[in-house]
Amino acid sequence: MKIESIQAIIVDLPIARPHKLAMATLNRHSLLVVRMETDLGIEGLGELSVIPHYSEESITAAKAVIDDVLAPGLIGQDPRRIENALLKMDRLIKGNYYSKAALEMACVDITAKALGVPASALFGGRTQERLQMLWVLANGQVDLDVAEALQKLNQRTHRLFLVKVGSGDVRENVARAIAVKAALGEDAAVRVDANQAWDEATAGWAIGELQAGGIEVVEQPVHRANVAAMQRLTATYTLPIMADEAVVTIEDALAFSSSHACDALSLKVSKHGGMTRTKEVSHIASAAGITLFGGTMLEGRIGTSACAQLFSTLPSLPWGCQLFGPQLLSDDVARVDLRYEDYALVPPSDPGLGAELDLEKLAFYRRSA
Ligand code: MUC
Ligand code: MG
Question: In this structure, what CATH number is given to the domain that contains residue 293?
Answer without folding.
Answer: 3.20.20.120
